[in-house]
Specification:
Elements (H helix, E strand, L loop, with lengths): L1 E3 L5 H8 L8 H13 L3 E8 L2 E12 L2 E9 L8 H12 L4 E4 L4 H6 L6
Parallel strand pairs: 4-5
Antiparallel strand pairs: 1-2, 2-3, 3-4
């Protein structure tokens, strides 16, 4: 199930974000979470399987018609089950009138999902 990030999910979100190569440093990780919490153009979503939050996808609303995926992460014990692709699909459904693009860290995964990127 695709759910919007809330403050009470902060520790879980930070744990999932820490799997991203750019988010290994604690200070950087805290800045990223703060960005998602305080900037309306930055949106963070979580993926829940039964009672566990196992994935995360974060986006930047770049323009009226563009959503850029900044972060995508799945708990290692839940990888290779299609969760990342399900999150991308849910993101497309959340923003049906916008084009999905990737940053340098998410481009290779987004390519696998057959979405567009620049």
């Amino acid at each position: 199930m695709f759910i919007r990030y809330r403050k009470n999910y902060e520790k879980i979100a930070m744990g999932l974000l820490s799997f991203m190569p750019t988010e290994k440093d604690l200070k950087r990780l805290q800045q990223t979470i703060k960005q998602y919490e305080t900037n309306d153009d930055w949106q963070l979503f979580l993926w829940k399987e039964e009672e566990d939050i196992v994935g995360l996808i974060g986006v930047l609303l770049r323009a009226p018609d563009v959503v850029e995926i900044q972060h995508i992460s799945v708990n290692p014990s839940h990888r290779h089950q299609g969760i990342g692709k399900q999150m991308v699909k849910a993101l497309k459904e959340t923003y049906p009138d916008r084009r999905l693009c990737a940053n340098e860290w998410t481009a290779s995964f987004l390519d696998k999902c057959n979405a567009c990127h620049e």
